[in-house]
User: What shape does this take?
Amino acid sequence: MSNFSSQSTLAPAEHQKEYTKGQIVKFNIPSFYGFIDPRQTFLRFNVAVESKLRMRLSKNLGASALIHAIRIYDHSNAQLLENIENYGNIVKMINVYGDNESLKHQKQLLEGVDVENADGSLDLKNSLFFNGYVPSGSTEVDLADTSIAMPHHVQIALKLQSGILGGDKVFPVSAFGGLRVEIELNSAVRSFMMAELGSSELHPLKLAEAITGGAKTEMVVRVPFVDCPYVVGEEIAMTNDADEEKYLTITKLEHHETDATAGIEQNTKITFASQTLGASAVGKPTHIEETYRTDCATALQYRLTNMELCVKQVNPPESYIGDMMKQIGSEEGFSIDIKTFDLVRQNIQAGQLINEQPIRSFSHRVYSVLSLMVENAGDSVLTDSFATMTGASKLKSYSYMIDGKKNPNRDVATELTTQSAHHINQQSSFELHKALESCGITIRNLPLKTNFLIGRAMGRYGGVFRLVDRNLTLRSVFDRSTTSMLCLNYLCSLRRLNVSNKGIVVVP
Assistant: This one.
């Protein structure tokens, strides 16, 4: 089907309203849409973030962090055609290992993915979610300024990682009587995190004026007002040479200029609440550390509006449509294959140095298994909720076993004991490379130290492996295990959707 006409069509959310954490957004793609091109189909919506803290979406994810699961049914809801759970973890995996600099900047503009500068700091000036905290043309911001309470609005155009809505084959919507799409949203605290302002979690700022003697409720820092990293209502910690700390709540931010004789510098004056900066209480601060107020984190919320699927309709030749309808009316039926991810979760208890658990699958055709481990530490705005266990600092080795036999035939080491700690075992890298390529993910990065992932290609030479009647087990050996973890095992598989005179059948 190389030569056929096409047009773009919108499929709005079932209820044109605001959506927020934990809700399910429903879309109907009617049968008269005929055929759609998933490569040119995407989700578009507006995000409004309300917070007293500087927020960004989870690193490497962008707006995909807002989605917990995607479920696609036939129009009658009789058959679940595709179900992708823990959606953000899959997207992060694909982005981290598959994106180059060009793709990162493209997703920065469209999906709100943050990009790092050469020094490791975030490119906040081009970030969709960080801009706009200081109103344009303002010289001060205080608690009486209503603009600080206004939500920060961002428009998103998001490609979906779905075999049906994001695959590389034209999908016959009409064959299934239409489609019903459900998108379940994540919580705000899981989706967002505080914006980092440098390569470190604590970001020192130089004082423009020494704090000496007497009580003060203000100070000046060497940072232009328009680039000030702080917001009104936030709390910062003052630390002196003796590591004494005092927590101060910001009530006002102002533009401030130094003496012209020293060369005019654009600085920011920070005013605090009733707390004082007396030398007797705090001493002369040497640096400032960011902190946050619990009520600020609790007040964090987001709202999604104008949600719609932008669908690319295509019109194949009449002969193709006629052949498809003939097959649908037969007992053998019409079939289409989609590549998707099935999730199997495993819990790993704290202190369990050797863990062996089955990965139960009903998949007939599996390309690869990909496993990532996350700590059960709970979600927080101070950490990335989608971060994996870092490097091989805990996992010493692993082996996938099929019917009790190791595959490959020996344990795969994940750490180097005789070489630099900044490297990772080459065997583990090689196995992961094969597993990702078998899934159809083009490898452009292998950041195993910061985004740790293990995997095994099940099929050979681009083929698939029948796993439905086999026993797959993951055996993990840890160097230490102080916290419980969750192992997310994603089976990249080929799923067959069949439509016949007997109805719709899904073959995993």
